[in-house]
């Protein structure tokens, strides 16, 4: 009997029954998208790993910043207009930019910056990359 997921592992397991702890290379764009969309578990499974802590991240903060500058944040993950919805926000407030997390109408962890780039840098570093040890 052939399991439906056997083909997925075939590229990661050259020898039947043998398993790499770290794939040789996960494409950087897949790493970035997995982090920005909170899909790190899906990425780990795709490459035959048990959990995201087994992923060897090869991206840098600068590469993620470039990706966000070119493509923006995934839709629905970061708000750029005030809303009653829970989530992360980056708002222009006069000459300043404010970054905060909102849950059930309460604002948490509010920080202010002089530019959108500084705000985006802070958001990526503290809410997306820090937990994976990416700097």
Tell me the domain tally.
2
**Which class best fits the helix and strand makeup?**
alpha+beta
What is the arithmetic mean of pLDDT?
81
Principal-axis shape equals globular
Oligomer category = single chain
What string gives the helices and strands in order?
HHHHEEEEH
Please state how the strands of the largest beta sheet are arranged side by side: 1-2-3-4
Number of helices: 5
Sheet bearing the most strands, described? 4 strands, mixed
Number of strands: 4
Instruction: Please give the radius of gyration in angstroms.
Output: 18 Å
Low-confidence stretches: 1-17
Strand content: 15-25%
- Helix content percent band: 25-40%
Give a structural overview.
With 135 residues, the protein is of the alpha+beta class. The chain has 2 domains: 1-58, no CATH class; 60-135, no CATH class. The chain has 5 helices and 4 strands. It has helices spanning 6-10, 28-36, 40-46, 61-71, 116-129, and strands spanning 78-79, 87-93, 96-103, 106-113. Strands 1-2-3-4 form a 4-stranded mixed β-sheet, covered by helices on one side. The chain is globular, with a radius of gyration of 18 Å. Residues 1-17 have low confidence and may be disordered.
Outline the secondary-structure elements.
Layout (H helix, E strand, L loop, with lengths): L5 H5 L17 H9 L3 H7 L14 H11 L6 E2 L7 E7 L2 E8 L2 E8 L2 H14 L6
Parallel strand pairs: 1-2
Antiparallel strand pairs: 2-3, 3-4
Helix pairs in contact: 2-3
């Amino acid at each position: 009997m052939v399991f439906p997921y056997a083909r997925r592992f075939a590229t990661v397991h050259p020898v039947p029954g043998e398993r790499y702890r770290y794939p040789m290379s996960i494409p950087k764009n897949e790493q970035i998208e997995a982090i920005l969309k909170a899909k790190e578990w899906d990425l780990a499974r795709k490459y035959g790993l048990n959990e995201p802590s087994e992923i060897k991240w090869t991206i840098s903060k600068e590469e993620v910043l470039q990706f966000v500058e070119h493509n923006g944040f995934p839709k629905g993950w970061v708000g750029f207009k005030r809303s009653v919805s829970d989530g992360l926000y980056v708002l222009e407030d006069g000459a300043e930019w404010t970054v905060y997390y909102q849950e059930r109408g309460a604002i948490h962890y509010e920080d202010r910056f002089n530019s959108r780039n500084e705000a985006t840098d802070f958001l990526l570093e503290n809410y997306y990359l820090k937990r994976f040890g990416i700097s």
